[in-house]
Amino acid sequence: MLSIVAGCSQAVLSLRQVDSILKYLDAAEHTVLSSGSDAAISDHNFAVFASRPVPTPSSEEPSSWQTPVPTEPQSCPAAETDDVSGFITHSIHTEAQRIGDTHDTDVAHFLESGDILGSDATLTAEMPPILGHVATPPSIGELDVVDVHLAVEDYWLGAGGSPSSNPRSGLDLDHFLMRHYAERVCHLFCVIDTVKSPWKTIHLPRALQSMGELSVTGKTTTVRSALCNALLSISAWYLSNDHHRHQNTELGQRWADVAAKYGYNAIAKLKNAVESDMYTSPKPKYKEFLASMLSMVTINVSQT
Amino acid sequence: MSGDTHTCGVHLDGAGELLKFLWKRKRTLSAKTRSLYSIYCYLRVIYGSTLVQREDESLQRNSDPESVFCFFDSIDPHESASTSPSSTKLAGETAIFECIYGIPWQLLSLLEEVTRLIRCVDNFRMNSVSANLPHDVDAACDQLENDILDWKMEDDHSLSLAADTDAAREIIRNQTRAFHGALVIFFSQNIRLLDHRYLRGDVDNILESIETIEHIKAKTNMLAAPIFWPAFIAATEAFDPKQQARFRKWHEEVTGYGIASVRTGIDVVNEVWRIGPSRAKRHTSLWRTIVARTGDSLMLS
Fold first, then answer.
1. Would you give the end-to-end CA distance of chain B in angstroms?
2. With contacts defined as CB-CB under 8 Å, which chain A residues touch B7?
């Protein structure tokens, strides 16, 4: 089933991008057909949800611009009472506490709300020019960091060139950062640029699926949202590191703040997912739990 | 600028518990889960290799952890009845590791063993006045040293599973060569306490490999980050000014990838170079002494 994510039609794709996406989908389709797996395929503004019918998510959460509805933790079947949930929750809580100590942030607030970006992540009808600025990026392998820098400058300075202290809508920021992740960051995790990279075949498709679900249906699973926030945090950390390396401390710090917020969100959502969804029926997507946890390590490695 | 990697262990512990939980429930892992498991194994082993106990910490922690590779070695009951030979399965694991990190999983397994042995040797040396290791530890050191030195790179056939271009294959060959060389140094500097002069050739070989990798990537316009662990280990035994100049140039290049945690490793290397080689009696490598003193947490992935 091919779905075009709603809300992205205003971002014009170049012919080269369309070619690239079609090639990727062809390659992925071949892989799915030959393996018979239920792989989800997504790329750029296209999202092909599971090629086989997907069971209704065990726990769905509202989109980021709606008030989260707390869910009661599911009772744990007797046969599955391994203390994995407790252990992981403890680990995540330790990390959240550390962040609170480090950044002087009200950890309890975001752990309860589950969405520290809530105030920024309002859906607006206006599409800022940010997507247009990076609508024709160089193809993979030719990506020049300078292009990303220019786009970032425009984003933060605004069309009139006057400094803007408020980021534009959270949704557009999500799109920008995910695009940066897809076109640059996720290529860096393997020693060779390969289509078999788990960051391209597992992390990215599921995060894009999460964004697509939010755009189309307004809800996604908690753990998938945790993964998505983790990737957005990683993407922002890389931008922050770029600016620090080019002695642009102010922009570097702004992106670091954005990255930290997405990081808080990722931890809070992961904690909620582990507490609420680990033992639900139908079985949760354990791969998404694992990918989210490993992405938290990547956040650690990426942050300045 | 320094990478905050103090909580990497927390997340890795969580991921490890989840994997155990999955293994108990399913006894078989899908291809994608195995890919994620490979990432976990790599991160866990690399993180453990630079985890140094501070002087005020208990020596009993992590005394004998289970191997991270235990799920790869276990036999899948469904697969055992099938006709697929286990060698195919292992080749698949090797392909995953080569594809992601440019090394076969056997090298990572050897690194895990060396790390465990170093902890054992460290504990003995810190708590004993004797210069000689106990017989069983000494025998284990000899055996592992032989395993490392006898290890040979797989042939081109297995490489082709992971990489489909000449450039990718050449990067994997050089990455494997660098990692193997770093493993030799890691063992020698921490267990044999070998003088840096004996390791100069290994340092040169690693430098050549990591420089070649960056050259190939630049030439083919490939976007992929380097693995920092081999470069770090080699740099901690590089006291020749020419070698240090080459490492500095390489460090400058790789900071462009935007991986902040590299900075902490480079700081440790600079401190090693500032102090310089010492003839004083020591029980471990200089960089481990520095990390134990500063309390730095390294993640050289």
1. 17
2. 94-95, 98, 296, 300
Contact A301 B225 (CB under 8 A): no
Is A241 close to B256, i.e. CB distance below 8 A? no
| Average pLDDT, rounded, for chain A | 63
Q: How confident is the model at residue B259 (pLDDT cuts 50, 70, 90)?
A: confident
CA-wise closest residue to A183 among A161, A155, A210, A151: A151
pTM metric for this prediction = 0.74
Global ipTM: 0.88
Rounded Cα gap, residues A301 and A296, in angstroms: 9
A304, B36: Cβ pair inside 8 Å? no
> For B188-247, how does the pLDDT look when each residue is reduced to its tens digit (9 = 90+)?
999 999 999 999 999 999 999 999 999 999 999 998 989 999 999 999 999 999 999 999
Is residue B33 within 8 Å of B51, Cβ to Cβ?
no
pLDDT at position B89 over 70: no
Nearest-angstrom CA–CA distance, A172 and A151: 13
Q: Are B133 and B121 in contact (CB under 8 A)?
A: yes
- Please give the C-alpha separations between residue B229 and each of A219, A276, A298, B108, B186, in angstroms, as whole numbers: 41, 38, 16, 12, 10
In chain B, what are the domain boundaries? 8-294
Q: How far is CA B299 from CA A92, A304, B231, in A?
A: 19, 13, 13
Between A200 and A8, name the one with better pLDDT.
Answer: A200
Whether A17 contacts chain B with CB within 8 A: no
Do B242 and B214 form a contact (C-beta atoms < 8 A)? Answer: no
Q: Are A176 and B212 in contact (CB under 8 A)?
A: no
Angle at A137 between CA A131 and CA A142, to 5 degrees: 155
Which chain A residue is nearest to residue B167, measuring alpha carbons? A192
Most confident of A38-42, A52-56, B141-145: B141-145
Single out the residue of B171, B197, B175, B170 nearest to residue B185, CA to CA: B197
Alpha-carbon span A1 to A23, nearest angstrom: 17
- Judged by CB atoms closer than 8 Å, whether chains meet at B32 and A39 is answered as yes
Min distance B9 CA to chain A CA atoms (Å): 8
3-state secondary structure at position A301: helix
Give the model's confidence band at B114: pLDDT under 50 very low, under 70 low, under 90 confident, else very high. Answer: very high
**What confidence tens digit (pLDDT) does each residue in B115-150 have?**
999 999 998 988 887 778 999 999 999 999 999 999
φ, ψ at A160 (rounded to 5°): -80, -5
Q: Please name the member of A98, A238, A286 whose beta carbon is closest to the beta carbon of B7.
A: A98
Q: Is the bond preceding residue A282 a cis peptide, omega within 30 degrees?
A: yes
B186 vs B32, more confident: B186
Is residue A109 within 8 angstroms of chain B, CB to CB?
A: no
CA-wise closest residue to B285 among B187, B205, B201, B206: B187
Q: Which residue of A has its CA nearest to B224?
A: A188
Residue ranges of A 129-158 with Cβ closer than 8 A to chain B = 140-143, 145
Please give the backbone phi and psi of residue A60, each rounded to the nearest 5 degrees, phi first.
-105, 145
Q: How far apart are the first and last CA of chain A?
A: 41
pLDDT tier at B85, thresholds 50, 70, 90: very low
Domain regions of chain A by residue span: 83-302
